[in-house]
Amino acid sequence: MEEHIRKTQFKNLCELLKESRKKQASPFVTLQATKLRSALAGKLFRKAYQKDSVVAWRSSFVPTEMLFALDIIPFPPESIISMFANSHLTDGILKVAEDYNHSRDTCSFLRGVAGSVIKDYMPMPDFLIATSLYCQGSAQVFHSISKKFNRPFYYIDVPFHCDRHYTIDYVAKQIEDIMQKMAAVIGKELDIDRLKDAIKYSNEARNYFLKVNELRKNKPTPMLGGEAIDYSIMLSHMFGCKEMVEVCKTLHEELSERVKNKVGSIDEEKYRILWRQLRPYYSNEIFDYLERKHKAAVVFEEVNFIHWPELNPEDPFKSLAVRLLSNPPIDFSKKWLKVSIGFVKDYNVDGVVEFAQWGCRFLTANTQIVKDALQKIPVLVIDGDCIDRRDYTDAQIKTRIDAFIEILDRKKRSKR
Length: 416
What we know:
Blueprint: H1 5-18, H2 32-47, E1 55-58, H3 65-68, E2 73-75, H4 77-86, H5 90-99, H6 108-118, E3 127-131, H7 136-149, E4 153-156, H8 167-185, H9 192-215, H10 225-228, H11 231-237, H12 242-260, E5 271-276, H13 285-293, E6 296-301, H14 316-325, H15 332-346, E7 351-357, H16 361-364, H17 367-374, E8 379-384, H18 394-414
Parallel strand pairs: 1-2, 1-3, 3-4, 5-6, 5-7, 7-8
C-alpha cells in the first residue's frame, strides 16, 4: 500500500497546481545561473515524489551534506510552501490548517506545512530531521508529522552557548549518530568517503558564492536583489550536491562579466539597500517598486551571508558542527548585530529594509535593537507575512516605500 502513497500525493499536488491561475512570471530572472538553480530545485522536488526515493524532510539548517552522502533526497517543506505562495495556492492550505486549530498567530510557513499534510500534497518522508536553529516550532511540527507517517524523527540540538569548548563535539556526535541510524534503516554502510566528497562539493560552491557576494559590493551592483534573495533557498537546501557547484560557478562568471563591463542590475543606481529577513513570496511588487521604480538597488540580503569557514573533509562531523554553531543569530548581541553593521559598511549601504515576518518571534524580537544600533542609517520595517497574503496591502506598502525613499533622498542632498 505504501508504494502508492507518493503517487497519490503527486496526483493531489498536480490537481492543486491546476487551480493556479495567477502564477507570477518573475521579473527577476535575468541570469542563466538562476535558471540552472530553478532546474536543480525542480529536479530534487520531483525525485522526492518517486516511490523508490529515500526522502528526508528537513528544517532549514540541517546540513544537506549528511543526506547527499547517503543518497537521501532532502525535502524542505517550509521552502515548498513559499513555492505554493508564489503560485497563490496557500490561501486554501492555510484555511485548512486553521480549521484544524493551527492559529494564525503562529508561523505561516509551518501552518502551510500542516495544511499540506492534511490535504496530502507533500511526499511521504522516510525520515524527518530538525535543528534547534532558530525555530522551535519546526521541530514540534516535524515531530507531530513523524507520528502521522510513523517515521523516525531526529533532532539536532545546537546550544546557544556556542563558544564553550565541548559544544563542537556535542553537535558533531549528534550528526554522526543520526547518519549511522539512517544508514542502518535504509540498509547501507555509512561511507565516510561519500561524506568527504559531499563536503568537497560544498566547499567549492561556498567559495564561488563568497566571490559572488564580493562582486555585489561593486557600484553599480551587478545583480538584482529580487533575483538574489531566492538563492537563500539553494544555500539552505543544496550544499553537498555536485550540481550546485555548477550553479554557483555560472553565477560567479556571469556577475564577473557584468562587473568587467560595468553593467548594473538597474539602469541608474541611486540608492543602495540592505535587505533583512525574507520576502513576501506571493508578490514581487516590493522589490520591483524599490529597484525599478525608485532605482534603489538591493545590494545584499542577510539570508545570503556565508557565515561559516571552509569545511575540513578529513574531519566531516566536526566541520558540519562548526557550520551550525557559527550561525550568527545564535549569539545575537555579539555576532549578528556586528555582522549587520558590517554589511552596511562593506556594501556602502544608504538604507535598510526589513520584512518582519509575523509569527516569527525570534527574528522580529531583534528588529528594534538593529534600528537602534544602526543610528544614522534609515531603516524601513515592513510588518507582514511571507506566506499569508490575506492582510497584504500593496498600496499601503508602496506609500511607506515612497516616504522611505524621500528620507534617503534628503539625506543624500544634505551631504552635497
